[in-house]
User: Fold Phosphoglycolate phosphatase from Natranaerovirga pectinivora.
Amino acid sequence: MFQNIKTIFFDFDGTLHDSSKIYVPAFKKAYQFLIDNNGAEEKEWTDEEVASWLGYTSIEMWKKFMPNLDENIRKEASKIIGKEMNSLLATGSGYLYDGTIHTLEYLKGKGYSLVFLSNCGNTYKETVRKVFYLDKYFSNFLCAEEYDYIPKFQIFKEVRDQYKEEMVIIGDRIHDIETGVKNNIHSIGCLYGYGNESELTNASYCIQSITELINIL
Assistant:
């Protein structure tokens, strides 16, 4: 299935990075801000509930989570999440899934071109790039903010001519699989990430661990 792959597009959060470790505390801090400013009612959030928002752009997340929230309060809460996540990354709280670096080294060594494609913002992209030394492995870094938060499948459509065919996209959410389907390329769904299994139904293949890529690519 993957014999002629030249370029691998990687989602980041929930695929390479166990970002719940920084997103959950950042979300809870922002939610407390909402409570303090009469923007939300008190609620105890489980980590699983919070992590379910990972993989969305910040705009998508707020539209689904609190569509009627005052825009100024929403922007401030969104800033709190971003600032806290970047702060936690800078102090060493970020965590790549076990085997991620080994897998990236293997794929790079095999001659694949690796491309970072995330629904994140620019500051977050640059922070993880620096903290995890991702320039060692990736030839390019693409994020939703650079493309005015258009859907991931549209970002891919805009850039695909810059990369060698054939291609595969790897990720844990519906956005990643949708990118594969709508652009007629292979996709690999990550069952260990933050999406539910139904989101990965149309994936070409599914994995339980990032290290499985070594056996199939």
